[in-house]
Design goal:
Layout (H helix, E strand, L loop, with lengths): L2 H14 L37 H10 L1 E4 L5 H15 L9 E3 L18 E3 L5 H4 L5 H11 L3 E11 L10 E4 L7 E2 L5 E6 L10 E3 L11 E2 L13 E2 L9 E3 L6 E4 L5 E3 L8 E10 L7 E2 L15
Antiparallel strand pairs: 1-12, 2-3, 3-4, 4-14, 5-13, 6-15, 7-12, 7-14, 8-11, 8-13, 9-10
Pathway: Lipid metabolism; fatty acid metabolism
GO molecular function: L-ascorbic acid binding; metal ion binding; phytanoyl-CoA dioxygenase activity
Enzyme class: oxidoreductase
Length: 307
């Protein structure tokens, strides 16, 4: 320390009065730190906040998904199940709600019930179901990936039926960005909440960890003998030897994953109907909009019809 610096230090200490020189701790500035000794953690897929731990952020960065246990209460899930039942029985009618049936039973003349509905989409106009998208415990985690100014791009409640033997209850491996060509992709996240115990028997989610670091791949209808459900597109050129993780989840568990993560689900080999609730969220720009491609059916333009 030169004479002038020492004098300035004595002056400062004199003003502070109660501090002794030993109480002053020197911290290096950026100018005194060698670039080779400074290695800050780089996060590409998560945002700075106090919700996720360092370990959770690192796991998502590396794998593209993160499971949060017991996030949604049993009470909320029961309310959502009750509302879904009313929609299936046509006790609730919404103009823009999309109701889908499994291809193996779609032509059967069955009474309206949960047994004939495979999926409902765009439930944002149903106040009870959309309440799921506004749950504080869901939003606080969504904002870890999107930031605070967000909207639900798409909403679904999937009711995977018992497989009829044609294996049509499967969902081929795909990337969500194929269906929702919006960006930036690193600020989009899907929240997938189990509404009951889910494992490989009733068609749990399967993910290919780390595939979110790649690009959007070409999709098409898989060549399945038993048929394929409408808009159930699958990736054509993924590495079949890639590691897979089957996510066994309990009621209320929620997995958050990146829109480029390759994922799908197996067939439901039980006699029950496996239910999950899914919103996909994206940040809103300064103009109040989400930036999306003009291509109507994914980047490759596949039309919503059965092959």
């Amino acid at each position: 320390m030169d004479a002038r610096a020492a004098a300035r230090l004595r002056t400062v200490l004199g003003h502070l009065g109660r501090l002794e020189p030993r109480d002053v701790v020197a911290h290096p500035t950026s100018g005194t730190v060698s670039p080779t000794s400074f290695h800050p953690q780089q996060f590409q897929f998560t945002l700075d906040n106090s919700i996720l731990s360092l370990e959770q952020r690192q796991f998502y960065e590396e794998n593209g998904y993160l499971v949060i246990k017991n996030l949604v209460s049993d009470e909320d899930i029961q309310r959502f199940r009750d509302e879904f039942g009313k929609i299936c029985r046509k006790e609730v009618k919404l103009d823009r709600l999309v109701i889908m049936k499994d291809v193996s039973i779609s032509k059967l003349q069955l009474a309206p019930s949960e047994k004939v509905v495979t999926k409902i989409q765009d439930f944002q106009e149903d106040p009870e179901l959309f309440r799921y998208c506004t749950l504080p415990q869901i939003l606080k985690y969504v904002e870890c990936f999107t930031g605070p100014n967000i909207m639900a791009m798409h909403t679904m409640l999937i009711n995977k039926p018992p497989d009829t033997g044609k294996k049509t209850s499967r969902h081929p491996l795909h990337q969500d960005l194929h269906y929702f060509p919006c960006g930036p992709s690193n600020l989009i996240v899907c929240a997938w909440t189990a509404m009951e115990h889910i494992d490989r028997n009733n068609g749990c989610l399967v993910v290919l960890p780390g595939t979110h670091k790649g690009s959007l791949k070409p999709h098409d209808y898989p060549k399945w003998e038993g048929g394929v459900n409408k808009m159930y597109h699958g990736i054509q050129d993924y590495d079949e030897n890639s590691a897979r993780v089957h996510l066994v989840m309990e009621k209320g568990d929620t997995v958050f994953f990146h829109p480029l993560l390759i994922h799908g689900s197996g067939r439901n080999k039980t006699q029950g109907f496996r239910k999950v609730g899914i919103p996909i969220a994206a940040p809103i720009g300064k103009d109040g909009c989400v930036s999306c491609s003009a291509t109507p059916y994914g980047y490759d333009g596949l039309k919503p019809k059965n092959p």
